């Protein structure tokens, strides 16, 4: 009997431990800061609105940082870490070449620290700021789940291999989304974030001529739109064009109606609609037909993405400076890392 009781106790302990380990992502909660930082959402929203008022591209910059954070080691704020002893920044990855918005995150973090110092992670700030970036500019709203903690490490190698590229095919894009547990609907919905923001010509000008060594332009690129873009890009490879030529600063469904007429700016955008027989085509059509359908799926896909492998509980830390691990993390860092962010799109 004693032996059986011991065995039962061991089994019970094992399953309890398994629940604790397996439930780490479930620790994210809408109410996580209700007692420790109850005005968090209001503070972040005010800071995001202020940023957008001074820079219409601020929202697109913030949501891009959140995307690129979650696709590498999960949503842990690692994309924000700059080079330092023991850290090779993900910002050095080709997929993050020139990414902007770090100074906006710094400003939001400063406002949050004034309200409730040492409480809110940079990873949670990115999640909340992304939501606010969308609904402030006309898109859907949702309740953000909180409880993420910040990584003490970066993963430049992971950024090199995991971030989606504007030059990729649909199969390549699907594989990268599948690798982080996101499906085809997530891919199409989250790509809709390109309904606002800009991209530099260097990321799409390969479509103008000799596309894939064919000697001709990308056949999926609307000829009139191509000629318009060629005019824009005559000013240089770093010139920016709107992702959405119709309503460039509003979060709406026009990204999908643009795809239907060959006006997806990036190759990776147009692949969703112009890949023959693709299962993404009916999803694009459904989002183009009804904005409410797009908003519903985008909202859920943002929550899905925000749940990718968060650090919770005693993992990681709450960074005081989003660009640096805390000085008590075992590494030495000088300075506060002020300065301009980088710019990709």
UniProtKB/TrEMBL annotation:
<keyword id="KW-0964">Secreted</keyword>
<dbReference type="GO" id="GO:0042744">
    <property type="term" value="P:hydrogen peroxide catabolic process"/>
</dbReference>
<feature type="disulfide bond">
    <location>
        <begin position="70"/>
        <end position="75"/>
    </location>
</feature>
<feature type="domain" description="Plant heme peroxidase family profile">
    <location>
        <begin position="27"/>
        <end position="326"/>
    </location>
</feature>
<feature type="signal peptide">
    <location>
        <begin position="1"/>
        <end position="26"/>
    </location>
</feature>
<dbReference type="InterPro" id="IPR019794">
    <property type="entry name" value="Peroxidases_AS"/>
</dbReference>
<feature type="binding site">
    <location>
        <position position="78"/>
    </location>
    <ligand>
        <name>Ca(2+) 1</name>
    </ligand>
</feature>
<feature type="disulfide bond">
    <location>
        <begin position="37"/>
        <end position="116"/>
    </location>
</feature>
<feature type="binding site">
    <location>
        <position position="252"/>
    </location>
    <ligand>
        <name>Ca(2+) 2</name>
    </ligand>
</feature>
<keyword id="KW-0408">Iron</keyword>
<keyword id="KW-0575">Peroxidase</keyword>
<comment type="similarity">
    <text>Belongs to the peroxidase family. Ascorbate peroxidase subfamily.</text>
</comment>
<keyword id="KW-0106">Calcium</keyword>
<dbReference type="GO" id="GO:0140825">
    <property type="term" value="F:lactoperoxidase activity"/>
</dbReference>
<dbReference type="GO" id="GO:0005576">
    <property type="term" value="C:extracellular region"/>
</dbReference>
<feature type="binding site">
    <location>
        <position position="247"/>
    </location>
    <ligand>
        <name>Ca(2+) 2</name>
    </ligand>
</feature>
<dbReference type="Pfam" id="PF00141">
    <property type="entry name" value="peroxidase"/>
</dbReference>
<keyword id="KW-1015">Disulfide bond</keyword>
<feature type="active site" description="Proton acceptor">
    <location>
        <position position="68"/>
    </location>
</feature>
<dbReference type="InterPro" id="IPR019793">
    <property type="entry name" value="Peroxidases_heam-ligand_BS"/>
</dbReference>
<dbReference type="GO" id="GO:0020037">
    <property type="term" value="F:heme binding"/>
</dbReference>
<comment type="function">
    <text>Removal of H(2)O(2), oxidation of toxic reductants, biosynthesis and degradation of lignin, suberization, auxin catabolism, response to environmental stresses such as wounding, pathogen attack and oxidative stress. These functions might be dependent on each isozyme/isoform in each plant tissue.</text>
</comment>
<feature type="binding site">
    <location>
        <position position="76"/>
    </location>
    <ligand>
        <name>Ca(2+) 1</name>
    </ligand>
</feature>
<feature type="disulfide bond">
    <location>
        <begin position="201"/>
        <end position="233"/>
    </location>
</feature>
<keyword id="KW-0732">Signal</keyword>
<dbReference type="GO" id="GO:0046872">
    <property type="term" value="F:metal ion binding"/>
</dbReference>
<feature type="binding site">
    <location>
        <position position="195"/>
    </location>
    <ligand>
        <name>Ca(2+) 2</name>
    </ligand>
</feature>
<keyword id="KW-0376">Hydrogen peroxide</keyword>
<dbReference type="InterPro" id="IPR010255">
    <property type="entry name" value="Haem_peroxidase_sf"/>
</dbReference>
<dbReference type="InterPro" id="IPR002016">
    <property type="entry name" value="Haem_peroxidase"/>
</dbReference>
<feature type="binding site">
    <location>
        <position position="74"/>
    </location>
    <ligand>
        <name>Ca(2+) 1</name>
    </ligand>
</feature>
<feature type="binding site" description="axial binding residue">
    <location>
        <position position="194"/>
    </location>
    <ligand>
        <name>heme b</name>
    </ligand>
</feature>
<keyword id="KW-0349">Heme</keyword>
<keyword id="KW-0560">Oxidoreductase</keyword>
<keyword id="KW-0479">Metal-binding</keyword>
<dbReference type="InterPro" id="IPR033905">
    <property type="entry name" value="Secretory_peroxidase"/>
</dbReference>
<feature type="binding site">
    <location>
        <position position="69"/>
    </location>
    <ligand>
        <name>Ca(2+) 1</name>
    </ligand>
</feature>
<feature type="disulfide bond">
    <location>
        <begin position="122"/>
        <end position="322"/>
    </location>
</feature>
<feature type="binding site">
    <location>
        <position position="72"/>
    </location>
    <ligand>
        <name>Ca(2+) 1</name>
    </ligand>
</feature>
<comment type="similarity">
    <text>Belongs to the peroxidase family. Classical plant (class III) peroxidase subfamily.</text>
</comment>
<protein>
    <recommendedName>
        <fullName>Peroxidase</fullName>
        <ecNumber>1.11.1.7</ecNumber>
    </recommendedName>
</protein>
<feature type="site" description="Transition state stabilizer">
    <location>
        <position position="64"/>
    </location>
</feature>
């Amino acid at each position: 009997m004693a032996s059986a009781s011991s065995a039962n106790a061991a089994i019970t302990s094992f399953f309890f431990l398994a629940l604790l380990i397996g439930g780490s992502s479930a620790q994210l909660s809408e109410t996580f800061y209700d007692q420790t930082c109850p005005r968090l959402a209001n503070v972040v929203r005010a800071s995001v609105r202020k940023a957008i008022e001074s820079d219409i591209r601020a929202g697109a910059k913030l949501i891009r940082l959140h995307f690129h954070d979650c696709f590498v080691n999960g949503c842990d704020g690692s994309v924000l870490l700059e080079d330092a002893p023991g850290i090779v920044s993900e910002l050095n990855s080709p997929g993050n070449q020139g990414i902007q918005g770090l100074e906006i995150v710094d400003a939001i973090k400063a406002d949050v620290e004034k309200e409730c110092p040492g409480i809110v992670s940079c990873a949670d700030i990115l999640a909340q700021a992304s939501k606010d970036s969308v609904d402030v500019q006309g898109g859907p709203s949702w309740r953000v789940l909180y409880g993420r903690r910040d990584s003490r490490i970066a993963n430049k190698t992971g950024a090199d291999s995991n971030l989606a590229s504007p030059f990729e095919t649909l199969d390549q894009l699907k594989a990268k989304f599948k690798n982080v547990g996101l499906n085809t609907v997530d891919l199409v919905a989250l790509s809709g974030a390109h309904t606002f923001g800009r991209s530099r010509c260097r990321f799409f000008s390969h479509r103008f001529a000799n596309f894939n060594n064919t000697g001709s332009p990308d056949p999926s690129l609307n000829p009139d739109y191509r000629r318009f873009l060629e005019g824009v890009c005559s000013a240089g490879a770093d010139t920016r064009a709107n992702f959405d030529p119709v309503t460039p600063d509003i979060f709406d469904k026009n990204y999908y109606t643009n795809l239907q007429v060959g006006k997806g700016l990036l190759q990776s955008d147009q692949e969703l609609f112009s890949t023959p027989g693709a299962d993404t085509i009916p999803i694009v059509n459904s989002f183009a037909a009804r904005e409410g359908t797009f908003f519903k799926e985008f909202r859920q896909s943002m929550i899905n993405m925000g749940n990718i492998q968060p650090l919770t509980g005693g993992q990681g830390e709450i960074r005081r400076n989003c660009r640096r691990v805390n000085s008590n993390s075992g590494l030495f860092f000088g300075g506060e890392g002020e300065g301009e962010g980088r710019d990709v799109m």
